[in-house]
Task: inverse folding
């Protein structure tokens, strides 16, 4: 009931109502793109290949179901996410990028995001060439060099349009655009999955469905619990005399969440796992033996369940630290508190407070990263036990849907609280 009240209040305020309707229309447009098919495809062969290939299943998550329809947006937001990851990693190597993102405020971040958009274009071209070449080699599509170039350009345009839609949604401040596009694609496929499960239901499959449902409930409960968990750091505001009045002296707290990064590490980890294989597919176009060997090695590695799960866990854990360092900057927060006359009891404002925040965030992020990594690979453990590929992809989808839903509701609540406070 609380969720319904939140969305009811959302439509009471005119500005929020306009922004919410704009977000809905943009998501519908993204779904429209996901249903415009590319030409020259053998749908029956593609369906058979799609059901047997876990790699395609993960790409389908990022494309919002566009890949399963073989649409013009079949790569989804994968290239854009990969571009952002590359730039974030480069901040550790190039001081100018780090300075731009962390110290130049909104102007610097706008430049940083512009570099991400520019880098998305060549990455989308490389991934589209590689992926289409892969499907051509499998006999799913029949492309000449000219039609390959044509389709690669169309797919790249689809990525750019989705990227533009995602940024327009983010600007409305009612949720993260990238996450919501992926969320809408997963939700849109749910009725079809349920109908398919009902049509193919048998008593033998109960031993697969029941563990999956139990796993889904446990994942949902765990994600909600960790997302709501926070460490509250006590703050005291110093007393100030202005004229004849005394201000300050109030006690409050600074909430630091365990899952500060939300679902972003999962999305980043999957994007980074998929990129090397699509790059190898592109390089295989050169017909050089080394690249063909590299492609076979990568395919073999990604098909190894244990190695894939281990690398997936490590990447999720690492990206949790990376994204938390971006969203929660102890140095900046310490400076802001000091300028506002607030301090942590028993600690001096400035460097001592900054060090205290860093220690707390580091410990919380460690446990948050372990939990998120474990939840990410838990479906693979069940997949190994049940020998069912659907569980891994379905578990990842549930993880993304629940996390995005919680983050979006929180952002809507913050917008509502501003208006109710006024």
Result:
């Amino acid at each position: 009931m609380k969720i319904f009240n939140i969305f009811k209040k959302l439509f009471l305020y005119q500005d929020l109502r306009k922004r919410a309707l704009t977000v809905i229309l943009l998501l519908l447009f993204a779904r429209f793109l996901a249903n415009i098919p590319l030409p020259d495809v053998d749908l029956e062969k593609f369906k058979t290949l799609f059901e047997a290939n876990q790699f395609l299943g993960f790409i389908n998550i990022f494309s919002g179901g566009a890949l399963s329809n073989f649409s013009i947006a079949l790569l989804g937001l994968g290239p854009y996410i990969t571009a952002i990851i590359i730039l974030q990693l480069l901040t550790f190597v190039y001081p100018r990028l780090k300075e731009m993102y962390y110290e130049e405020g909104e102007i610097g971040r706008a430049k940083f995001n512009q570099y991400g958009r520019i880098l998305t274009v060549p990455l989308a071209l490389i991934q589209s060439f590689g992926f289409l070449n892969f499907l051509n080699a499998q006999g799913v599509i029949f492309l000449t060099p000219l039609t390959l170039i044509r389709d690669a350009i169309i797919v790249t345009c689809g990525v750019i349009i989705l990227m533009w839609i995602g940024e327009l949604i983010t600007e409305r401040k009612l949720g993260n655009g990238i996450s919501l596009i992926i969320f809408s694609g997963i939700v849109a496929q749910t009725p079809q999955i349920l109908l398919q499960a009902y049509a193919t239901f048998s008593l033998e499959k109960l031993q697969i469905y029941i563990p999956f449902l139990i796993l889904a409930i446990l994942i949902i409960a765990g994600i909600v619990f960790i997302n709501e968990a926070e460490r509250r750091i006590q703050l005291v505001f110093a007393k100030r005399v202005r004229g004849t009045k005394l201000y300050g002296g109030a006690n409050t707290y600074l909430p630091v969440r365990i899952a500060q990064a939300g679902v972003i590490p999962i999305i980043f980890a999957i994007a980074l796992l998929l990129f090397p294989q699509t790059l190898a597919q592109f390089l295989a176009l050169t017909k050089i033996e080394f690249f063909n060997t590299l492609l076979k090695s990568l395919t073999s590695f990604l098909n190894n369940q244990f190695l894939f799960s281990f690398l997936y866990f490590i990447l999720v854990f690492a990206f949790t630290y990376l994204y938390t360092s971006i969203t929660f900057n102890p140095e900046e927060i310490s400076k802001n508190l000091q300028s506002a006359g607030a301090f942590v009891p028993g600690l001096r404002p400035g460097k001592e407070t900054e060090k205290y925040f860093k220690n707390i965030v580091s410990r919380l992020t460690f446990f948050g990263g372990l939990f998120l990594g474990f939840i990410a690979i838990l479906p693979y453990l069940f997949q190994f036990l049940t020998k069912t590929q659907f569980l891994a992809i379905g578990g990842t989808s549930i993880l993304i849907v629940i996390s995005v839903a919680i983050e979006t509701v929180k952002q809507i609540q913050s917008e509502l609280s501003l208006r109710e406070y006024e």
In short: The chain has 16 helices and five strands. The chain has two domains: 1-191, 202-422.
